Amino acid sequence: MLLGLGLGAYFAVIAGIAWLLSKLWEPIGIILFIIALAGAIGIVKWASRYYFYMLKAAHTAVMTEFIVYGKGPQGSQLKYGKEQVLSRFKDSSIMFGIDLLVDGIVKAFTRSFSNMVGILPIPGLDGLTSILQRIALASTTYVDEAILSRAYKNREDNVWKSAHEGVVLYAQAWKPILANAAVLSLISYLEFAALLVILGLPAVAIGYAVPSLRVALGIGVLLTAWMIKLALSDAFSLAATLIAYHRSTEGLEINADWASKLEGVSDKFRELGIKASQNSKLRKVIPQTESSSSNINLN
Predict the structure, then answer these.
(1) DSSP state of 294
(2) Confidence band of 268 (pLDDT split at 50, 70, 90)
(3) Cα angle 21, 46, 231; round to 5
(4) Dihedral of CA 170/172/177/181: which sign?
(5) Alpha carbon 234 to its chain's center
(6) Gap between the Cα atoms of 246 and 226, Å rounded
(7) Tens-digit pLDDT profile for residues 97-120
(8) 120: alpha, beta or left, given left = phi > 0 and alpha = psi -120 to 50?
(9) What are the residue ranges of helices labelled H in the chain?
(10) Where is 94: in which H helix or E strand?
(11) What is the pLDDT of residues 215-255, one digit of tens each?
(12) How far is CA 17 from CA 132, 214, 217, in A?
């Protein structure tokens, strides 16, 4: 809500400046407004990186408890989620660094080994291979979070090792996980389009009655639909992908062949393996303290 209001104020200022400049030369105002749209995307990405990223990580930690153990923490779920994130990753920069590596590995795997046409139960998709692969790549953001959630499931302190193994397990059971994530990603965009229509119809009616409000109403509809997608559709897709990942990889053992294949297609996978090995050696030297999660009864 705050992000939506902030973007609304941002567009109000830009619209005022664009209107003034258009008095001098009309194309200037249009160009400025187009640049402002790109700036709005940058603002959302900034907010996602510096605020929503850790918030989503905390939600992921709590959802993992429900998915894996069937029971959530007592008390404040958000507080518990933040504690789990910090106890595992120590610092947001570490988590972000691991996530970047995992994201690159998953995308490399998707480009090299996945075939969305063969796994989606929709006939007549042969001519849409390129589009489906793009959708698959876009949906891997949910897969990244699912892989990182193994650290919460296994109470793993060496998060590099957990991520390294999690990527291999994903490669072994990728079909239902990626198909699920891709379909959910597609549905979320369809929901966004539906929201634009639902919110746009009354906005159009008001715009005809009060022409001076047309630009403001158009921006308001776009921002409202966009924020609802971020708050609801994307969150639901993440939860469903977490479920698909943990169910699909449950009981699987690490397959060395898949680890070798991943090393062949991704330098980042090799880097992740080196980091995992280095942290394993370090933890043999440093005595481990009892994790705060051990105080929570999950049985």
Answers:
(1) G
(2) very high
(3) 105
(4) positive
(5) 7
(6) 29
(7) 899 999 999 988 888 876 654 555
(8) beta
(9) 2-24, 26-47, 53-64, 77-89, 92-113, 116-119, 129-148, 150-153, 159-172, 174-209, 214-228, 234-249, 256-265, 267-285
(10) helix 92-113
(11) 888 888 988 998 898 888 888 989 999 999 999 999 899 99
(12) 40, 17, 18
Structure tokens of 67? 């998915």
DSSP track, 195-234: HHHHHHHHHHHHHHH-GGGHHHHHHHHHHHHHHHIIIIIH
Going from N- to C-terminal start, the domains of the chain cover 57-70+82-285
Residue 92 burial (C-beta neighbours within 10 Å; 0-12, 13-18, 19+) = middle
More confident residue, 256 or 28: 256
Give the separation between CA 92 and CA 38, rounded to whole angstroms.
Answer: 26
Distance CA(103)–CA(120), nearest Å, equals 22
Q: How confident is the model at residue 270 (pLDDT cuts 50, 70, 90)?
A: very high
The values of phi and psi at residue 254, to 5°, are: -65, 125
Count the residues in the chain: 299
Structure pTM?
0.79
Least Cα distance to 242 among 116, 167, 149, 134 occurs for 149
Q: Residue type for 297, please? A: N
Place of tokens 């994201």: 103
pLDDT at 297 over 80: no
Is pLDDT at 293 greater than 50 in this prediction?
no
Whole-number Cα distances in Å, 200 to 34, 185, 214, 283: 20, 22, 11, 56
Cβ–Cβ < 8 Å for 95, 85: yes
Residue with tokens 């296994």: 154
Average confidence score pLDDT of the chain: 83
